[in-house]
Design a protein that fits this description.
The complex is a heterodimer of chains A (333) and B (429).
Chain A: H1 8-16, H2 30-69, E1 72-73, E2 81-82, H3 86-93, H4 95-127, H5 133-146, H6 150-159, H7 165-172, H8 187-197, H9 200-211, H10 215-224, H11 228-256, H12 260-266, H13 283-293, H14 297-325
Antiparallel strand pairs in A: 1-2
Chain B: H1 9-22, E1 43-50, H2 53-69, E2 73-80, H3 82-94, E3 101-105, H4 106-114, H5 122-126, E4 144-145, E5 148-149, E6 152-157, E7 159-164, H6 165-171, H7 181-195, E8 198-200, H8 207-216, H9 231-246, H10 253-259, E9 270-276, H11 279-286, E10 291-294, E11 309-315, H12 322-334, H13 336-342, E12 348-349, H14 352-357, H15 363-378, H16 391-406, H17 412-428
Parallel strand pairs in B: 1-2, 1-3, 8-9
Antiparallel strand pairs in B: 3-11, 4-5, 6-11, 6-12, 7-9, 7-10
Helix pairs in contact in B: 2-13, 6-7, 9-17, 16-17
The chains are: A mainly alpha (333), B alpha/beta (429).
Keywords (chain A): Cell membrane, Membrane, Transmembrane, Transmembrane helix, Transport
Membrane topology (chain A): Multi-pass membrane protein
Organism (chain A): Streptomyces variabilis
């Protein structure tokens, strides 16, 4: 993961000077080149074929099918019946759907920034030269490797339920809120805590970005008498803004897709899928309920496409906004 | 790594963004079928049910018995809690790969018959692989819907008030057949005041109980194709519920939500719970107290509105081995030894052979027998109407919205409106 800034001229320069890829020796004639090129292309596609087959069968095909189902009434058993935009209008009129949108937006809007702030803060600490930094880096990174698993979600549920460690700790401080997982208003906080706990992944990316900031800039700032805080705002933040942008993008999209942790913490086996009083009913949870509990696959497909469009829009807005705050250093290094 | 810098950062970011956005999709289930026969004539059938661990242990023992008697038939098992069972079943069935034989109940017969999932067992009866004689109390008719035999009852059960006996004793309450809802309300208050425990676990969300209340008043939860009560009826029921939760008569729904899949009664959050009478078997293995059965409160001092419910075994239409499945069902409902293993776990055995083979000796099963007998004696049992397609979704919505009401997330008016909206959608599809 090279994080330093690069720039278009570098690529242009390379394009003008095509590098011979077929080893040393006399340059081959154009006709030979063409044939060889075609053969190499074929080989390339052959090597890619497992992936292409997987993509077509497991991604593109189902996607196309789901796009079709989105405009049908489909219960999995009977043939889908074309109903045009009815699924979409039903969705918009459904208070439970609107509730799930609110829950998801809240989760994204709170969870993502908090997670990134923690990741950046810890990365700043770990970027300094101290003893044992490698150990800390590994230790902080570890949760993000296992955090998305079902087993961790089950542990999480146990930690935040009635009379468990969080509840008891609260009681020591005189707060008697009961378990979070049974409270329709608190359960979403336990999910935010779960995502923040996995700050390791963006942290590592931040760390890589911090390492690439040229030391000379700080030295010059020191000479000019800029304090640490000012150095952070004026040097560190602009210099790592591409990395920050990458993390914001990645984490936002991830947050929109939250499912398994919400499903497990919110209910899991024997419970309702979405937490008490739909307290943790994120978008994908409701999609699951409509698709698999209520057998309304057409509606669920329509919901999936709505999510795709929403995430695409958010991504587009983020890309548009980067002009204002993301700095790609001119000239590369 | 120096070379790697040549890659355009923006290009990488864009590609990453695009590919992540694409993964936002995907709710398409795939299931694959598999063959189940083998060269030496041994056949494997898949059997699925819902229940808890103790039921699984009993069922596994009965399967050992079956496999000993029919060495050419192997049985593969699978079980989940109630709601998860139906999710999995639904997905499997839609993928053309349902279990060959599975536990079923009256609320699902029409639904899955409409979806062409259930095998009409009449043919197997005619061929002599499945005997439909020797059932108690007309139970052989329970699985017959619209002229098709879609399920074979394994047992009968009825709704009851399952009580924590020591708690009721401490509160000094001894409910008798014919007690009224006023008596019940008073009992709830006494349990709360004298034992510090909520009286009930959350009766307001139990569809099968509200059904009884409606029947006592000449209505029913379901008609042949819709809901049998008005928004005004439900408003009254839930207004009372809201007060009960606020005043601690009913268990704190926050706590109840967290101990799932354990029940509020066995987790000692409440002194009693309205459910099926065979649940005392499960609660006894789950909880530490002693559990007994009390009658359903009445409106007029007589009618409880009760009917016999029944768990059944159904076969799927797509099974490759209808004969083996029929033999399996036949064995499970008629074999006396099965009854001694199962006890009243799935209700009082449906056939007289099994009923007579198992004479309960422990207090829990004895109490179930006594309770069922008392219902017959009091003559309160009425016929059951088959549920319409979509009934299961209404049942789940009733429970969920009732919980939301208990948690204070909805007013009574909002809850009633939401329930009627969701039911209308479920019953019309």
């Amino acid at each position: 993961m090279g994080t330093a800034v690069t720039h278009a001229p570098a690529t242009e320069a390379r394009a003008k000077d095509p590098e011979p890829r077929h080893g040393p020796g006399t340059p081959p004639r154009p006709a030979d080149l063409k044939r060889r090129g075609r053969r190499e292309n074929l080989a390339g596609y052959l090597f890619m074929s497992p992936w292409i087959a997987g993509f077509l069968l497991l991604t593109a095909g189902p996607m196309a099918a789901s796009l079709y189902f989105a405009f049908t009434d489909y219960n999995l058993f009977d043939a889908p019946r074309w109903i045009g935009l009815d699924n979409f209008s039903e969705m918009l009129g459904d208070p439970r759907w609107r509730h799930s949108v609110r829950v998801t937006l809240w989760y994204v809007a709170v969870g993502t920034p908090v997670k990134l702030l923690v990741a950046l803060g810890v990365a700043l600490l770990l970027a300094q030269k101290r003893r044992g930094q490698a150990f800390y880096r590994a230790a902080f990174y570890a949760p993000s490797l296992i955090g998305a698993s079902v087993s961790v979600a089950i542990v999480w549920k146990a930690i935040f339920s009635d009379d468990a460690i969080v509840d008891r700790t609260q009681k020591v401080f005189g707060i008697d809120a009961g378990g979070w997982t049974g409270d329709p208003d608190l359960i979403i906080y336990s999910l935010v805590a779960l995502t923040v706990w996995q700050f390791g992944a963006p942290m590592v990316i931040f760390l890589a970005g911090l390492k690439q900031v040229p030391r000379e800039l700080y030295e010059a700032a020191d000479v000019d008498g800029a304090g640490k805080l000012r150095q952070f705002w004026k040097i560190t933040l602009p210099m790592i803004s591409p990395v920050l942008f990458f993390n914001v993008l990645l984490e936002t999209i991830h947050s929109f897709q939250i499912f398994s942790s919400a499903y497990i913490v919110g209910g899991g086996a024997g419970g309702n899928a979405c937490g008490p009083a739909d307290g943790s009913m994120v978008y994908t949870c409701y999609l699951y309920v409509q698709g698999f509990e209520n057998s309304r696959m057409g509606l669920a497909s329509a919901m999936a496409w709505m999510l795709l469009v929403a995430v695409a829009l958010v991504t587009a807005v983020l890309f548009w906004s980067q002009k204002r705050w993301v700095h790609y250093e001119e000239g590369g290094r | 790594m120096q070379q790697g810098k040549g890659v355009e950062r923006r290009a990488v970011l864009k590609a990453a963004g695009a590919s992540l956005a694409v993964t936002g999709l995907g709710a398409t289930a795939t299931a694959c079928g598999g063959g189940s026969g083998s060269g030496d004539g041994t056949v494997t059938i898949r059997y699925a049910w819902w229940g808890a661990e103790d039921r699984a242990q009993r069922i596994n023992k009965t399967i050992d018995l079956f496999e000993k008697k029919y060495p050419k038939i192997k049985v593969k098992t699978d079980f989940q809690p109630y709601t998860d069972f139906w999710k999995k079943f639904n997905t499997q069935a839609s993928g053309g790969n349902p279990p060959d034989v599975f536990q079923n109940a009256v609320g699902f017969l029409r639904k899955y018959d409409a979806k062409n999932v259930l095998l009409d067992l009449h043919e197997q009866v005619k061929a002599g692989h499945l005997r439909m004689e020797g059932f108690r109390a007309g139970l052989e008719k329970f699985g017959e819907i619209d002229g098709k035999l879609l399920g074979v009852p394994v047992g009968s059960n009825s709704m009851a008030l399952v009580i924590d006996k020591p708690v009721y004793a401490r509160a000094g309450i001894n409910p008798e057949m014919g007690w009224t809802w006023d008596d019940f309300d008073e009992a709830m208050a006494r349990v709360r005041d004298r034992t510090g425990r909520a009286g009930d676990s959350g009766m307001y969300g139990v569809m099968y109980l509200y059904d009884l209340y409606l029947r006592q008043n000449g209505k029913a939860f379901f008609t042949e194709d819709g809901l049998g009560f008005t928004e005004g009826d439900l408003t009254r029921w839930w207004t009372k519920a809201e007060k009960g939760v606020r005043s601690g008569l009913f268990a704190d729904p926050k706590k109840v939500a967290q101990i799932k899949p354990k029940s509020a009664l066995s987790a000692e959050l409440a002194g009693s719970e309205f459910t099926w009478d065979n649940f005392t078997v499960r609660y006894t293995s789950e909880g530490r107290s002693e559990y007994g059965l009390a009658p359903i409160p009445t409106t007029d001092g007589k009618r409880t509105g009760q009917y016999l419910g029944s768990l059944m075994l159904s076969a799927s239409k797509r099974t490759q081995h209808p004969v083996e499945v029929a033999k399996f069902i036949d064995f499970m409902v008629h074999d006396p030894e099965v009854a001694t293993i199962m006890g009243y776990d799935r209700g009082v055995p449906a056939t007289t052979a099994q009923y007579e083979a198992y004479r309960p000796t422990d207090p829990v099963n004895k109490a179930i027998a006594a309770y069922e007998e008392s219902l017959v004696k009091a003559g309160v049992l009425e016929p059951i109407t088959p549920h319409p397609n979509g009934a299961d979704i209404c049942e789940a919505a009733f429970l969920r919205i009732g919980e939301e009401l208990g948690l204070g997330k909805r007013s009574v008016g909002e809850a009633v409106e939401q329930f009627f909206n969701e039911s209308k959608t479920a019953l019309s599809s």
